[in-house]
From TrEMBL, chain A:
The lineage of its organism: Bacteria, Bacillati, Bacillota, Bacillota incertae sedis, Caldicellulosiruptorales. Residues 3-75 form the J domain. GO terms for cellular component: cytoplasm. InterPro entries: DnaJ_domain, J_dom_sf, TPR-like_helical_dom_sf, TPR_rpt. This is Heat shock protein DnaJ domain protein. It comes from Caldicellulosiruptor hydrothermalis (strain DSM 18901 / VKM B-2411 / 108).
From TrEMBL, chain B:
This is Uncharacterized protein. It comes from Caldicellulosiruptor hydrothermalis (strain DSM 18901 / VKM B-2411 / 108). InterPro entries: DUF5685. It holds the Pfam family DUF5685.
């Protein structure tokens, strides 16, 4: 499940009034009556279900005031790590999402989950966040740099093949233009 | 697909370039057998699909020479039909069908209705034998549309879904490796297309999945550069994975497309985006 705060579109740690207001607005937006005879109806219903779930979680005291939660932090993270090791990504994510915390390790583990799924953009964002919160941690730094490294290696291989910025107007471009001219209606590859 | 998956031409050998064009012509002529209308949607991305499939199944293809209506004067090389080519051309028709379908739902565009109903007939012909993947793609497409309708702000979720569509299209005979290649191509294409369209979409007040990230950057140049660098790193990561997959085929055109063509497209799109962002979006 997604982060309940995100589902309702409120900031982390929002008050109950705020949550309730956001919830009512969303329910109005996705109400099934609005989607009669509409192909999107099923989706609206699904969305509504998600909204209801998120609302119930946030209204439950344990989650909205997570400082008072009875969970033992280290054991939770260990549990998540074990789940990831076992390849049970979905369960690891829902466990993390049920316990939104604002520390570096939470973001790091979330990043791992997204990385496993191939959602690189999201994963990289989480790693940056984890690194920013705790720059001294080797694990977080490595995770973040791993992405930058892959990107740099790829870039380097592109350069190694002799790629130059092609929008410079050099002799090559001129030749190209002349060549294009010659085969006038030839639908050439644009590059 | 949108014409981003192309080789970097100055790096191609002449014979590679000729071959590349021959595949393009081959797909066009193959599609003609289904009908003339879908030929309009032909683009270079499907050559990439053909090359990947050809290398994967080690197909020996032959070239022929012909004149055609677009090039009536000079004879041109074209690829003689084979099973893979037929598959590629079918997929092209399928994708153009969904594109029109999207247009109709999206913009209620009258001009899409006529070609849509014609294409529908073709689709029935094509999907007779393999109904299942078609239904799967349809489902993914519907999900894509509803995600966009609901104003989804998560780029990865959208790109992931789009990647799955291409994975389905690439997965000839349900090969896992092809599925992966399709997936990463799709994810990359989706994000790069979103960046490319961003300024236009904002001006015309259309949906764009990057809005959530770039809306708040209008006044803050540093934040903009930060967001852009994240996108750039992720795009290049996707391409790095893709180029690892493609390297295994040892085909110089494929290497060119992934390592140079798509790289230079990325740079080009990001550069245009950076220069135009603050210039065009002043209120």
């Amino acid at each position: 499940m997604r982060d309940p705060y995100e589902v309702l579109g409120v900031r982390k740690g929002a008050s109950k009034e705020e949550i309730k207001k956001a919830y009512l607005e969303l329910v109005k937006k996705y109400h099934p009556d609005k989607f009669k005879d509409n192909p999107l109806r099923e989706l609206a219903e699904e969305k509504l279900k998600e909204i209801n779930e998120a609302y119930n979680i946030l209204m439950n005291d344990q989650y909205s005031n997570y400082e008072y939660s009875t969970y033992d932090q280290t054991s939770l993270y260990q549990q998540v790590r074990d789940l990831i090791m076992q390849g049970n990504i979905a369960q690891a994510e829902s466990l993390l999402n049920q316990n939104p915390r604002n520390d570096a390790e939470w973001f790091y583990l979330m990043g791992i989950i997204y990385q496993k799924r191939g959602w690189i953009n999201q994963a990289y964002r989480y790693f940056i966040e984890a690194y920013n919160r705790d720059p001294g941690n080797y694990e977080y730094r490595r995770a973040k740099e791993q992405f930058e490294m892959a990107s740099r290696n790829y870039e380097w291989s592109a350069y190694n093949r002799g790629y130059r910025r092609h929008d410079d107007c050099d002799i090559c471009t001129i030749c190209q233009i002349i060549a294009c001219w010659e085969c006038c209606c030839d639908n050439d590859i644009d590059c | 697909m949108f014409g981003y998956v192309v080789p970097y031409k100055p790096e191609l050998k002449v014979r590679e370039y000729e071959y590349y064009k021959a595949v393009y012509c081959g797909i066009c002529l193959q599609t003609k057998k289904i009908g003339n209308l879908p030929r309009v949607f032909l683009n270079y991305d499907f050559v990439f699909l053909y090359l990947v499939l050809k290398e994967h199944f080690k197909v020996k293809d032959e070239l022929g020479k012909t004149r055609c209506i677009v090039h009536p004067i000079k004879e041109r090389f074209f690829l003689k039909p084979n099973e893979i080519l037929e598959y590629v051309s079918n997929q092209m028709v399928l994708l153009s069908f969904f594109k029109l379908y999207d247009n109709i739902l999206d913009e209620k565009n009258i001009f899409s209705y006529a070609p849509y109903s014609i294409l529908k007939l073709y689709i029935r012909k094509i999907t007779k034998s393999h109904r299942e993947p078609f239904e799967k793609i349809k489902e993914l497409f519907n999900k894509q549309i509803s995600l966009e309708k609901s104003g989804c702000e998560n780029i990865d979720e959208l790109a992931h879904n789009f990647g799955n569509i291409l994975a389905e299209i690439f997965a000839y005979n349900d090969e896992e490796l092809l599925r992966q290649i399709g997936y990463y191509t799709g994810v990359w294409v989706y994000i790069i297309d979103a960046i490319d369209d961003y300024i236009d979409d904002v001006k015309k007040k259309r949906y764009n999945c990057l809005k959530h990230h770039f809306e708040k950057c209008r006044q803050d140049k540093r934040l903009f550069e930060y967001e852009l660098s994240i996108l750039k790193v992720s795009l290049e990561n996707y391409l790095a994975i893709l180029s690892d997959y493609v390297k295994g085929y040892n085909n110089s055109i494929l290497n060119n497309i992934v390592q140079v063509g798509m790289y230079s497209k990325t740079q080009q799109v990001l550069e245009r985006f950076t220069t135009n962002f603050f210039k065009e979006l002043k209120e």
